[in-house]
Amino acid sequence: MFVSQSRVIRKIAKEQSCIIVGRCSDYILKDFPKESIIKVFCYTDAADASKRCKAVYHIAAENVEAEIKRINRSRISHYQYYTNQKWGDPHNYDLMISTGNMTFAMACDIIVHLYQIKHKTL
User: Fold this and answer.
1) What is the pLDDT of residues 36-47, one digit of tens each?
2) Residue 118 located in a structural domain
3) Domain encompassing residue 103
4) CATH code (residue 101)
5) All residues at 6 or more sequence positions from 42 whose CB lies less than 8 Å from its CB, including other chains
6) Residue 32 near residue 13, CB atoms below 8 Å
7) How many domains does the chain have?
8) Spatial contact of 30 and 89, defined as CB atoms under 8 Å apart
9) pLDDT digits over 37-92, tens only?
């Protein structure tokens, strides 16, 4: 599955502008020219993650902490297995955004602004 997803991600990225969330895409696109991609890692603190899990995914309060740990363990394991790198390592990204003090729309605005700045200077 990873190999198939990698092919699709590379094909799409070569053909058009796109946004790829997760899928180890920072690693998959590591050989693309730096000026053609922006690698972003979004994260938050435990309190905000808990609040969002309850509100967005309707997870019962008593299950939230365990569910967050399960999901993050799965992400870490998947990323490290396929990339042999540490998930969330700032060296793998152009920008790291803490979403705890902003809305997702605000985080998107930051990314769009970086894109606009980057493409004006090419």
Assistant:
1) 899 999 999 999
2) no
3) 2-112
4) 3.40.50.300
5) 96, 97, 98, 99, 107
6) yes
7) 1
8) no
9) 999 999 999 999 999 999 999 999 999 999 999 999 999 999 999 999 999 999 99
